[in-house]
Amino acid sequence: ICESELLGQGRSGSGEWNLVLDAGRSVCRGIDVVRNKIKMFAQQKVTLPKGRHKIIILDEADSMTDGAQQALRRIMEIYSRTTRFALACNASDKIIEPIQSRCAMLRYSKLTDGQILARLQEVVEKEHLAVSDDGLEAVIFTAQGDMRQALNNLQSTNSGFGYINSENVFKVCDEPHPLLVKGMLGHCVDSNIDEAYKVVEQLWALGYSPEDIIGNIFRVCKTYQMAEYLKLEFIKEIGFTHMRVAEGVNSLLQMAGLLGRLCSKTAPPAAS
C-alpha cells in the first residue's frame, strides 16, 4: 500500500488555501471539478520545505462518479511527488479499486457510549442544561454511536421541553421506550406470551412501525441480562423477523410470531 495517500472510511457525522485544497461533497462529484479545480491545484508550483507536500482533501469521495474517480486516479499518479490526497467516505466499496490500492486505509468504527457520554457532559456543563442521568442514557441509546445524532437529540429535547430526561428524549426521537421493550423481553424469558403480546400491542397502538419495534428489540436484547446461549437464540430469531419485515411482511401477526418463537426458547419441554 502506498502511504502517500489516505482513504478514511467512517459513518456520516465526522476553503482553499495555498497548500491545502478542501473539496467538499457539494463540489467534488463530477469529472469537470476533478479535471479543472483539483488538477489545477495539483499543477500549481509552490515552494515548500523539504519533505512537505500540498494536500487535497476530498470529503464523501464515494459520491463521485466513476468517471471522476478514474480522472482522479490519473491525477494521483502524476502528481504523487508533490501532492498528497486524503479521501473520506462512508462506504469504501464505492471507491474504485485503483484508488483503494494507492491509499492507506483507515477505518473508523462507531463511537463508544463512554466517548459520547464524555462529550455530552461537556456540552451540558457549558450550556447549563437541565438534564437527568437517565436522560443522557436515553440520548446515547438513540444516537447508536453517532455523535452528530446525539447532539441533535440533546438540542431538540432541550428546545422542546427545557428538561432532558428519558421520557422527553424518547418523545422527541419518537422511538419505542426501551423500558417497555425490556419488560417485553422479560416476559419472553419467563415464557409469558400473553403479557409480552400486550406490550407489542401497546407499541403498535402508539403508531410505531414494525421497523422501529424490531430495531429496538434487537438493541435492548444485546444488553439484556440472560444466559449467553439464550441471548444468541433470541438474536437469531429477531434477525430472521427483521429480514421478513424488511421484505415487506410487516404485520402485527409477524411480531406475534416472533414473540411465540422467543417464548418457545425458554418454555419447559412438554411432558410426554
Automatic annotation (TrEMBL):
Record-level Gene Ontology MF annotations: ATP binding; DNA binding; DNA clamp loader activity
Assigned keywords, A-Z: ATP-binding, DNA replication, Nucleotide-binding
InterPro entries from the UniProt entry: DNA_pol3_clamp-load_cplx_C (IPR008921), DNA_Rep/Repair_Clamp_Loader (IPR050238), P-loop_NTPase (IPR027417), Rep_factorC_C (IPR013748), RFC_lid (IPR047854)
Pfam families named among the record's database cross-references: DNA_pol3_delta2, RCF1-5-like_lid, Rep_fac_C
Replication factor C C-terminal domain residues: 176-261
Function text: Subunit of the replication factor C (RFC) complex which acts during elongation of primed DNA templates by DNA polymerases delta and epsilon, and is necessary for ATP-dependent loading of proliferating cell nuclear antigen (PCNA) onto primed DNA. This subunit binds ATP.
Stated name of the protein: Replication factor C subunit 2
